[in-house]
Design brief:
The protein is an alpha+beta fold. It has three domains: 9-79, no CATH class; 88-149 and 298-317, Signal recognition particle alu RNA binding heterodimer, srp9/1 (2-Layer Sandwich); 153-290, no CATH class. The chain has nine helices and 17 strands. Strands 8, 9, 10, 14, 15 and 16 form a six-stranded mixed beta sheet that branches. Strands 4-7-6-5-17 form a five-stranded mixed beta sheet, covered by helices on one side. Strands 1-2-3 form a three-stranded antiparallel beta sheet. Helix 1 (9-16) crosses helix 2. The longest helix has 20 residues, at 292-311. The two termini are 39 Å apart.
Length: 322
């Protein structure tokens, strides 16, 4: 990085010998000076204190021919073999991979953020987060590690249909297809849930019977719908085929699911309300999962505690700056 123009030894000798401009050595000296004056130079420009993140001096290129001054970094960056700083988002597919990656790249200022929204839970580690000291310098927030909790296929199916009305044929087929996701409550669950919801809970066998009954009565006309004081409901069908006997179909108000919210995760039990309504001569069915957000949020918060323990990093529920 030159700050002064330097001449070749022969040119300096011409000056020392007092060569005249019209002598061979003098002419050579003038030519050399002219060439030197036309060559671009890299010089270092000192800067005043402009705040955090600004260097005390910057290299610039002075081009006499084009009468221009430009940043030397424009040329230097073209030859860079490694990036000046880490940036980008790494995606972890498992919680342990997220922990290991975060632990590998963490600094004194790294922070982990948790999105506890039960529909799309995720962790994000910002490696180059702001200085943790009070009033500390800002950082780039460009290097991140992301982990989206992988929701299981069965969870997605039940969440997608949650609260959606289905006609008899569709609902019967749905119950038949998802019968493996059902479970029976234990005695403690049965007592508490039947008390809290003032209804009875259907066992998997009862739901199978219900789905088959719905299939039998697909082409039936609803004769009456009666809500009983016991918490059960009874639907009377007027069969449109010769062999139908039109017997009432009992419907419990609750059933239980045993599914894992996350892929390869632990199963949890979730109560689901069973509802129907008369629409003309048809019955429309729907189910309503009871507070699925509680189960997911609890799991995410438990895993967040694990992340904090294994990485020794601060954790926050929320999202980092964009």
């Amino acid at each position: 990085m030159a700050k002064v123009t330097e001449l070749e030894p022969a040119t300096l000798e011409a000056y020392h010998e007092g060569a005249l401009p019209n002598s061979d050595k003098g002419i050579a000296a003038v030519v050399e000076l002219t060439k030197k004056s036309q060559r671009p130079e890299i010089v270092e420009v000192s800067l005043p204190d402009l705040g955090p993140g600004v260097p005390k001096a910057v290299p610039v290129i002075i081009d006499p021919q084009n009468r221009s001054v430009s940043a030397a970094t424009q040329i230097v960056e073209a030859f860079r073999t490694k990036p000046a700083a880490k940036r980008g988002i790494a995606t972890a597919l498992t919680l342990q991979s997220f922990i290991d990656l975060t632990d590998r790249h963490k600094t004194d200022h790294t922070a982990v953020f948790a999105n506890t929204d039960w529909k799309g839970p995720a962790f994000t580690a910002v490696v180059d987060y702001h200085d943790k000291a009070s009033g500390g310098a800002a950082d780039n927030l460009k290097h991140r590690i992301h982990y989206a909790f992988p929701l299981s296929e069965e969870w997605k199916v039940w969440i997608k249909g949650n609260g959606e009305e289905m006609e008899q044929r569709e609902f019967a087929a749905f119950l038949e297809d998802r019968i493996a996701d059902l479970t029976a409550p234990n005695d403690h669950e049965r007592i508490n849930l039947e008390r809290d919801f003032a209804t009875t809970i259907a066992t998997p066998a009862q739901l199978i019977q219900l789905s088959r009954g719905l299939q039998v009565n697909v082409e039936s006309i609803v004769k009456n719908v009666v809500n009983l004081a016991t918490g059960e409901a009874s639907i009377q069908f007027d069969e449109q085929h010769i062999d139908g006997n039109g017997q009432p179909l009992k419907v419990q108000g609750l059933f239980m699911l045993s599914i894992a919210p996350f892929f390869m995760g632990e199963k949890i039990t979730i109560p689901a309300r069973l509802r129907y309504r008369k629409s003309g001569q048809k019955i429309l069915w729907r189910y309503q999962l009871y507070r699925p957000d509680l189960h997911v949020t609890e799991r995410v918060r438990d895993d967040l505690i694990t992340v904090a323990a294994q990485t020794a990093l601060p954790t926050f529920e929320g999202s980092p700056e964009a």
